[in-house]
């Protein structure tokens, strides 16, 4: 599987169901759920809940998210409405889920990121940030933090950012005597910015599920992502200043001429990212046009700034081929997911589960803040077993109505749920980014002969989780942090 498909969460691995006995239990539970849903007369609302539980247990067995969602939903829809409505629904959703002009940004954004990545445009970014910020307490970690934000701006893939930054930054920090927890926690957490900073594939998928406009949805996390990156940096500086043993200050010195020369690493990223986001902000591009511009700009900077391609332009063709293959593969994956979520939405509607949930919210007389705080707890619990995409696909169809009822803007909620989903990427026991970083530091050339446990990685990530939770508090108190930019942009 490509890193792109991993990033969009096509599959939940069997790591969440360890051990033979656990697998046998899960198989038994799935058989029981199939019988209950398909052959036992149950109240509609209970049937809707069992369909969701069935879907989750299929995912825990390692069934791809799309097939788990589609399989459980088909059984539920067959029970609720019969064969004819099920066949009709499948015919409609296969076309309708893909026949959306706004979703055409997905292959373009993926192709743009692959071209930038394979052309080596991002390789010099870490050195550039280090030249300017390396003098700070915890300077290497701070440099890694902001380099990761820059990589996220052109990648949109959490996994890709984590891998690239881990291979470059972790050996530098560990060799310099940094605390293993601080070094690994920094790389784990910074990778999560990959889906917060546009272009974000997860946000496009969320927009399709929540039926929000793609342009404003892509712009909404820009300010929160900047705040989060700055918050991470400040936390690192304060910790390193209070406890210098965490991050010994080395003799990293750069002349002003070296710093100025290093700024050339920003030019290609500024051209692509500035063109895509700036074009939407100024109303020059629709989101679809901005994505197309991003592809053309990525090819242009690959030709201008990659020495290999500039010497031999023919090398641009294999680059395009690789990007197109990854884009088509990942796009097919995402559209299959959308087919599953539309069938699930139909089941939820017919089971009246969303209506029952909305009635419960009304009966509890919950305000906006109370409801959101409850959702924070629910999502943190879900994050122990599911990745961000699974969380979005599972919950948004159920929550859309109650959220609007208590006055929560669905564009704002996209940022809220994505931050919670990214927390799940680094928190125990399933945090994918923490597992990736742990694997990287098992290399003796990276860890300098110092064994680093998975527990150390998770402990290092806790500080960044706290900062992310503080951002959620800010978002709840000041929703305009996410809404100001999309509301004031002149997007078409």
Tell me about this structure.
By secondary structure, the protein is mainly α. It has a domain at 101-332 and 423-488. It has helices at residues 3-7, 20-39, 44-60, 65-81, 83-96, 105-118, 125-133, 139-155, 158-175, 180-191, 201-210, 214-219, 222-242, 256-262, 266-281, 287-305, 307-311, 316-351, 353-364, 368-382, 388-405, 410-424, 432-440, 444-447, 454-477, 480-488. Helix 2 (20-39) packs antiparallel against helix 3 (44-60). The longest helix has 36 residues, at 316-351. The radius of gyration is 23 Å and the shape is globular. The chain starts with a helix and ends with a helix. Mean pLDDT is 81; it is low at 1-17.
N-to-C CA distance:
36 Å
| Morphology call | globular
Rounded to the nearest angstrom, the radius of gyration is 23 Å
| Average residue pLDDT | 81
Q: Indicate the structural class.
A: mainly alpha
Number of helices: 26
Beta content? under 5%
Q: Percentage of helical residues?
A: over 70%
Counting DSSP E segments of at least 2 residues, the number of strands comes to 0
Order of helices and strands: HHHHHHHHHHHHHHHHHHHHHHHHHH
- Largest sheet, strands/sense/barrel: none
Which parts are unreliable, with pLDDT below 50 for 5 consecutive residues or more? 1-17
